[in-house]
Amino acid sequence: VETGRLAVAFEHFPLAIHPHAMDGAASAECARKQDRFWQMHDALFGDGADLERIGLARLASAVGLDVSAFARCLEDESVAARIQDRSRVAVELGWPARPRS
User: Fold this and answer.
1) Vertex 79, ends 39 and 68: CA angle to 5°?
2) Distances (CA, A) of 57 to 15, 53, 67, 79
3) How many angstroms separate the CA atoms of 45 and 3, rounded?
4) CB distance 66 to 57 below 8 Å
């Protein structure tokens, strides 16, 4: 057992009240498949980020993704299914939708 190390797990929790939450989560997951998760994450939460599909494609290009592969990934139903499944598990575990202060 190593000491002095911390592992951080990130799970998406797209809220139904936000019309672009699922596309945003899927965009980050699709970026993860190209080893650019945190770059896309930061871009999604940047000032003035356009979360419509065309805006997401622009963000994908800006963070250095293969935009064609990104677009195919967004259409892959298994990506949304995984996000929904992990969100369901989070609810079952009693995790809050946002960090507590």
Assistant:
1) 60
2) 22, 6, 6, 17
3) 32
4) no
- Give the list of residues 6+ apart from residue 86 with CB closer than 8 angstroms, or none: 11, 12
Give me 85's structure tokens. 């499944």
Residue 28 has pLDDT above 70, yes or no: yes
Hey, what are 47's tokens?
A: 């000032």
Nearest to 21 by CA among 87, 94, 93: 87
Q: Each residue of 34-90: pLDDT tens digit?
A: 999 999 999 999 887 888 999 999 999 999 999 999 999 999 999 999 999 988 888
Half-sphere exposure of 5 (CA within 13 A, CB side): 4
Taking CA atoms, 55 is separated from 14, 21, 34, 99, in Å, by 18, 14, 18, 27
